[in-house]
Amino acid sequence: MSDKEIISKxxxxxxxxxxxxxxxxxxTIGSAIIDYLNTVDPRTDDEWTLDSIDFPKVKEDPSDYxxxxxxxxxxxxxxxxxxxxxxGESALRAATADNPRNLPCPTCSEPNRxxxxxxxxxxQCDECARQTERGY
Length: 136
Fold this sequence. Notes:
- The chain contains four helices and no strands.
- By secondary structure, it is mostly helical.
- It has two domains: 3-57; 72-136, no CATH class.
- Helix 1 packs across helix 2 (26-40).
């Protein structure tokens, strides 16, 4: 058994035991363990991942399936509205009667660039965001 396999087994046991003692899921504990291992492991060519921990297999119970949690695409709204450009790069929210695009961008001061939800989230217009993030 290699050193990595020995540590993986120990970390698996630790994740499962800690999750049981603290009544949390092993993935949360596993993530913390992986962060720790990547900090202390001197090897830089072989990063630890959650795949390094052999979590117990969980059987899915079909009776746990709740059809009310299945949404149509237009039901998945953020802040009560969808995105202005669904599937695009913009984080701005769609303009609606209750969320009009009537506010200036805080960066460039161009009028009618943000909605009240966008401003509440601290956003700037798409052009300014693109310039800040990508330089064009």
